[in-house]
Every structure is written in C-alpha cells, then in structure tokens.
Amino acid sequence: MTTWTWIVFSFASIATLTTLYLSLRQKASVLANRAAVPARFAGKVSLEAHQKAADYTMAKLSLGRISQVIGLLLLLAWTLGGGLEWLDGLSRSFGFSEVWTGVSFLMLFFLIGQLLDLPLETYATFAIEARFGFNKMTAALFLSDIVKQLGLLLAIGTPIAWVILSLMLGAGELWWLYGWGFWTAFMLFMIWAYPTFIAPLFNKFEPLPEGEMKATIEALLKRCGFESNGLFVMDGSKRSSHGNAYFTGLGNAKRIVFFDTLIKQLKPIETEAVLAHELGHFHHGHVKKRLVIMVFSTLIGFALLGWLSAQPWFYTGLGITTASSHAALVLFMLVMPAFTFALAPLMSYFSRKNEFEADAYAVANSSGEALVSALVKMYEDNASTLTPDPIYSAWNDSHPPAPVRINHIENLLKQPA
Fold first, then answer.
1. Tens digits of per-residue pLDDT, 40-77?
2. Across the strands, what pairs with 234?
3. Mean pLDDT of the chain
4. Which terminus of the chain, N or C, has less C-beta within 10 A?
5. Residues 6 or more apart from 163 whose CB is under 8 A from it?
6. How far apart are the C-alpha atoms of 352 and 10, rounded to whole Å?
C-alpha cells in the first residue's frame, strides 16, 4: 500500500470511529433521561411520547452505526478489494468509445450503490418507521419509488456524465473550470425545475384550500412583502406521518409547500409562525448565502479533482491500474467524505445560527408563543428527542436542540418590542 492509501483509510477510519463515538454519546444521553420528561417540557409532552422519542432515537442510532461500518467496508471493497477495477473491466468489455465507456461505468456504479443501500433502506422504512407508527408506505409504492428514482438516474445522470466526461477528455487542462460552470448551471436549473417537473412524479400537490389557514398565511406574506408561485399541500401522509413545510424553487417559481400531516397537526396561527420562520431565512439572505457557498465549494472541488485526476498515485493507491476520467470521478466521490467530515461541526454551527435568526424574524412578524407551541407539537409528533448530547448535536444537528431553541425564543419574547 502507498502513502496515499494509508492517508485515505486513516481519515476514513477516524471519521467512522468519531461517528460511532458520537452516536454512543447520544445513546447514553437519551437513555439517561428516558425515565422522565425534562422539566422544561413537563405538562406539554407526555411521558409516553417522550419515551417513544427516546426509543425511536435509539433505533435510528443503531441502524446508523451499522450503516457507518458498512460504508467503510464498501470503501475498502470498491478500492483495494478490486470492485472498481472489475467494474472498469466490465465497462470496457462493451466496446464503446472512451466517453460512453465512462458513462456506463458511472451508471453501473450508481445502480449497484442503490441496490446495496436497498436492504438498510427497506429495514428503516418497514421495520423502524413502521414500529413507531410513522410508515404509511405500501410495498407497491416503495417499489414504484425505486423504479422512478432509477429512471431519473438514467434520464438525468446519463447526459450529465456524458458532458462532464467529454470535458475531461477534450477540453484541456482547464476542463475542471468548464465542468464547474456546467455543474453550477445544472444545479440552478434543477432548483428551478424540481417543484414543477420532478416532485409531482412522487407526490400530489394541491392548492391550499380557502379558509382561515389560507387567509392567515396570505396576510403574513403580504406583511412580509413575500411573493410566491402558490401555496400547496403535499400528500406526505401516503408515505409517512411525519410533518413538515418547506420552500422550493427560485425566482417566480418559488413555492410554499405544507405536508398534509402538518396542516392537521397545527392551528392556523401555529402554521403562520412556522411559515414566518421560513420567511426569515429569505429575509436574512440565508438561501442566497447557501447557494454562494455551494457554488464556491464545488469550484474548489472541481479544481481539486482536476489536479488529482492527473496524478498517477491517485489511482494506484486505491486499486486502479488504468487511469481514466470515469475512475477519477468515482474515486473522488468515494474518498472526499473522509476529508470533509471534519467540516461538519462548522457547517452545523452556521446552520444553527441561521435558525436562531429565522426564529427571531418569526417572533417579530408573527407569534412567538405560537412558534413555541408549534415546535413542541412537531417535536412530539415526529418523536424528536428532547435530550440530545450537546457534542453529538453540535456536530450533527443543523437545528438547535429543542431546549436551547425554545429558550432562545422565550428570551426574545421577554425583550421590548
């Protein structure tokens, strides 16, 4: 094994061991507080719901630990175990041109990856989610989703792979810059196109019906000066009883989407408060900032890939005897998570900072009390733990822990208007 081999698997092992350690910390924290509802939530969350959240968290953590170990083993199997070398030989045996050999290699890699993920995904859906009363999926719908996902992989992934590989093979040393430009344009296009063309393949979206809920939300949008392409209710209940709401799209294609489960859970004023929080993200420019970060980070990624793809040790150290553009792409995707893992707490910190700012906007433009009551309902209905380990949360959670977030909102309510 080369120095590069040791570096990759040292970082991958550290990332896996750190994830396992944090998972065990989370488990200990949740179990230690399982017997009683935290004082802050006494009278608002039942002991039964609190213990259900603890058990649900335990089940997901256990599956997550298994997934982490399998991920490390798959990295070993794909690289030093000869998986990519075998797949490269299979793709070349088709007799295609270099570009189409690469396209077939990439599509087969992603197809095999999805098949390998299927057992854990099936267990998560039909064992864990079903055990805790969340799963509403039928086997037929589950299989239908898989077929649609594979269809989208081929329909969208094939032309993307062809363009990127063509640039790598024919655009010279600056191919990575052109590839980054293409990828950025494609991502922006997908953000615009997703709500109109892709999401409807999986869910039905109906306009929010007339009534108190719609009137309350439209009044909020008018106060905040926010324009959207419509208010929609999504049939999330056909897959899960979890509730949520989100914005999607760009420019005039922006949509506000509510899960039908959330509409049933919350009162109109509570839904308004949740929506005001989401509007806060737009008011503070969080969405634009995230896009800028995404564009800048992908530029760094493409530049790094451009350099690595020209280094022979990048291939030989990871089990590839014949250097190729398609092998470089897959190797880069396989090893980069091991090196970017350490950035997780930094990204989580800025994400939680954005959440605090959005909460402050909601308090200023809606009802802080309604936001608190909505969050408590959502924590209970979604079986979210109220007692996370601080270090685990700081590393993994994009949102502040429940006690911290609600305490922040209540402190805002105490301040002068």
1. 898 899 999 999 999 999 999 999 999 999 999 999 99
2. 205, 259
3. 93
4. C
5. 182
6. 30
